[in-house]
Write a structure and sequence with these properties.
The chain has 392 residues and is α+β, with helices and mostly antiparallel strands. It has 2 domains: 3-260, L-amino peptidase D-ALA esterase/amidase, CATH 3.60.70; 268-388, Ubiquitin-like (UB roll). Helix content is 31%, strand content 27%. Helix 2 runs parallel beside helix 3. It is globular, with a radius of gyration of 22 Å. Its EC number is 2.3.1.35, 2.3.1.1. InterPro entries: Arg_biosynth_ArgJ (IPR002813), ArgJ-like_dom_sf (IPR016117), ArgJ_beta_C (IPR042195). Belongs to the ArgJ family.
Length: 392
Amino acid sequence: MHFQLLPLANSIADVDGFFCDGVHAGLKKDGPDIGFIYSDTLCDISAIFTSNRFQAAPIKHFQKHAITQTNFILTNSKNANAMTGKAGIEDIEEILSSLDFPMQNPLMSSTGVIGVRLTKEKIIDAAKKFHLQAKNADNFAHSIMTTDTFPKSVGFEVHLEDGKSFRIAGVAKGAGMIDPALATMLCFIVTDAAIPKEDMDKLLRKNAETSFNAISVDGDRSTNDSVFLLANGKSEIYEKESFDFALQQIMHRLALLIVKDGEGAKKLVAFKITGAKSKEEAKKAAKALTNSLLVKTALFGEDPNWGRIASTIGASGVTCDEEKLRIAFEDVLVYDRGEILFNKEQEEKAHKVMQKEEFAITCDLGVGEENFTAYGCDLGYEYVKINAEYRT
């Protein structure tokens, strides 16, 4: 099947039947801090959530009502509504029941400080200002931002070889508490494709493995991580191969934007593990590298300290042998199956690679055929400052 992806200028706002906006409720000092996504027809919904055992109230609310279809999502930033017990779920139900919109099975998604009850009155009063025919994806993207420095959105119109087309787009937030098992992130993907619910579930989980489950900023994991896929079927068009590819592109690009926006981060680094004994071991080694504080600080200092990389791989517990291992910074090979190539000339070349904003470090374990790529960033002074002052 041949198809073409054409970018959408306004991401989720350009998908047929979907509307969105964000307004200021006073949760932040300024700018949009609550938002909505609305479909004028009922949508099938698929979702994946954090593996943190202390899941936030919005996730528990979703699970309590076993939501499989909806047409309205209310979002807020600055307050995670996590560790708030049954009261947190009741707050969501009170807020949603106070809104006089044509909602079916509405749900809520939150991000921000843990352990604080929602300011219901502010949210309700501001939400009453929503215009459900609004199409302002930028306002919505800003409304879910916390420590993010820029909004994150991607969208495509997918043209099939028979001339038919459908649209798919996503908006995400995330910059800190990012661990490769989802992240401190929210992601909302909408489509007018007529995709079967079974495919929604399978493709969302499949593509999460190489996107949101393959990134790390700081190795921490939130209580609120959520990825939603909503399909209203309005195009009446669906082709599995092209949809899968478009979904993969959206999730992968949003995941990389999250890493690139890592709190205080200056480097986006791909850790490519090849020649692993199994896919699971390839993932384990790659994710260990994205989480290593010593590796992250070396990235920040632009120091090609390949010994930290080798040590991290060895400590991860995967099958490896120093006589079979190869380590390269882009195309600069510094260690080759027991031979140290790290002379002054190679060090300078590797250092120049690390001065780039984006680059790859490849580690060939030489013990098998499997591979996996995880994505991480550097860790510097700004990260400490942001998180030390998070609630102030």
